């Protein structure tokens, strides 16, 4: 399982890395610090020329240069990228933000818990659902 974490907060990056390491199911957790870096990663440009296409994207909403909404618009309009599930992982519980993300085809919207233990539980739940329950696009076998 390869995950791209698009997050500008170093503390949240470290927490997420720690939580996924504890679960042991993620083979690679790549980091992009904003939407611009994430688009470069997905396009394999610059420092990301050897990037692996992620099975899942965890996306913060409010970031510098390019935020989550604009990133979603770009990814979900791209024929090669639109099938990658995108989970918005943010501290915003504003109804407008939630609605706008789903309008841009976010696959789900999760509030970041502020408590460390709750954050670890949330990452474990994301991991359990998206790794153990859901069939992801890379697992689909073309039939003809």
Highest-level CATH class: Alpha Beta
Query: How can the largest sheet be summarized?
Result: 5 strands, parallel
Rg estimate, integer Å: 14 Å
Instruction: Give the strand line-up of the largest sheet.
Output: 2-1-3-4-5
| Helix coverage percent | 40-55%
- The number of domains is 1
Morphology: globular
* Secondary structure tally: strands: 5
Low-confidence stretches: none
Name the helix and strand elements from N-terminus to C-terminus, one letter apiece: EHEHEHEHEH
Strand content of the residues, in percent? 15-25%
Using the coordinates shown, work out and report the CATH topology.
Rossmann fold
If you average the pLDDT, what whole number results? 89
**CATH architecture type:** 3-Layer(aba) Sandwich
Q: Structural class of the helices, strands and pairings?
A: alpha/beta
State the distance separating the first and last CA atoms: 26 Å
* Corresponding CATH superfamily: Response regulator
**Helical stretch count?**
5
Write the layout of secondary structure elements.
Blueprint: E1 2-6, H1 10-23, E2 28-32, H2 35-43, E3 56-59, H3 68-77, E4 86-90, H4 95-103, E5 108-111, H5 116-133
Parallel strand pairs: 1-2, 1-3, 3-4, 4-5
Helix pairs in contact: 1-5, 2-3
Plain-language structure description:
It is a single chain. This protein has helices spanning 10-23, 35-43, 68-77, 95-103, 116-133; strands spanning 2-6, 28-32, 56-59, 86-90, 108-111. It is an alpha/beta fold and 144 residues long. The chain has a 5-stranded parallel β-sheet with strand order 2-1-3-4-5, with helices on both faces. Helix 1 crosses helix 5 and helix 2 (35-43) packs parallel to helix 3.
């Amino acid at each position: 399982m390869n995950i791209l974490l698009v997050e500008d907060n170093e503390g949240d990056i470290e927490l997420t890395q720690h939580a996924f390491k504890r679960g042991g199911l993620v083979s690679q957790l790549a980091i992009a610090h904003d939407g611009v870096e994430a688009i470069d990663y997905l396009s394999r440009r610059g420092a990301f020329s050897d990037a692996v296409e992620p099975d899942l994207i965890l996306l913060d909403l409010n970031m510098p240069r390019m935020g989550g909404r604009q990133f979603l618009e770009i990814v979900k309009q791209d024929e090669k990228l639109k099938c990658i599930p995108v989970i918005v992982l943010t501290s915003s519980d504003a109804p407008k933000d939630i609605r706008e993300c789903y309008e841009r085809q976010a696959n789900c919207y999760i509030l970041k818990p502020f408590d460390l233990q709750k954050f670890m539980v949330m990452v474990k739940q994301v991991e359990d659902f998206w790794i153990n329950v859901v069939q992801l696009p890379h697992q689909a076998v073309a039939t003809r």
